[in-house]
Amino acid sequence: MLICEHCAVSYTTETPRWRCDCGGTLRLEFSARFDLAVLRERTPSMLPGLWRYAEALPVPVADAISLGEGLTPLLPLAGPWGNAHFKLDFMMPTGSFKDRGSALMISQLKRWGVTEIIEDSSGNAGASIAAYCARAGIKAHVFVPAQTSAGKAMQIALYGARLAKIAGTREDTSAAALDAAQNIFYASHNRSPYFIHGVKTLAFELWEQLGFRAPDAVIVPAGNGSLVLGCHIGFSELRNADMIARLPRIIAVQAARCAPLARAWQQWMNDPVPVNKGDTIAEGIATAVPIRGRAVLAAVRETNGLFVTVEEHEILERLKAVALAGLYIEPTSAVALAALTKLRAQGELGADDTVVVELTGSGLKATDKLVKVF
Length: 374
Fold this sequence. Notes:
Elements: E1 2-4, E2 10-11, E3 26-28, H1 36-41, E4 74-77, E5 84-88, H2 98-112, E6 116-120, H3 124-136, E7 139-145, H4 150-158, E8 162-166, H5 170-180, E9 185-186, H6 193-199, H7 201-209, E10 217-221, H8 226-240, E11 249-255, H9 260-266, H10 293-302, E12 306-310, H11 312-323, H12 331-346, E13 355-359, H13 367-370
Parallel strand pairs: 5-13, 6-7, 6-9, 7-8, 10-11, 10-13, 11-12
Antiparallel strand pairs: 1-2, 1-3, 4-5
Helix pairs in contact: 2-3, 2-6, 3-4, 6-8, 7-8, 8-10, 11-12
């Protein structure tokens, strides 16, 4: 069942729909199931990647549109940031964690019989959705800001999507896509509950990779907040199934130059605070108006988490430091590492805490921008 987060009207999942008639965003009511015995015996050849959690996913495995996404490495690593576990989601098929959400969302669109979609993105989600649409035989129109990294734009175009570069802000790009979606299905990854239910598989993998236990904290970049919401849903489903005893703290990180959620957090507000967005190298989270901002703030509060902001120099310093450890990530990923460094210095995270840092996207996608700052 799809339920409006604004007016609580419900809709069937059998009919294509991306928002409520009132304009509100939709959440998916779904009961996840887990069986440890089955998971321990289920090999990748039986159900590959994130589809190994079939009983906890709202799309039947038989209808899966897959490129082999999921089960990325969890790497313990020591460095100037202290000990932590790094989730290497930049090793996904299209180079970003977005493949988790795209796999579920595009699989559902294929089930619905949708043949053409419009999507808007800062880059990674657009590339991911273009790839999965190519796999599914769905025609895609992808809108991105004109300043999007060249690598991401090229990915989108090579996957066969029709690429539209929009002058102005990320919000201008969303407005242009919405205007163009009058007669074409608007497959907004920021609005789709199926996308979030794909992202929640991050929580399942961490639970399994840590020996069927939850970490103490998960640090994630936050723009529109799909990682926050995905982790919250995934770990909540595990707790509800008595697979874990408590939720890990979700620590959401924003660039100081665009931090509407962090500012709301600091002011004890329930909705994002309007901001005058500045230029940030963390383009993937440069979102001034998070669509599900209220839900993101509530999710962090429920886990006793917090929001952290990081400056541009902190992002670049940590990006270079982790590169010297062998990991080439994009700046948006590096915000989580910069937050870890800051929180360790402040004593916010204990030395014995099991901390996971989500590394969201490959540095190869942003090389054209990195050569300008290094």
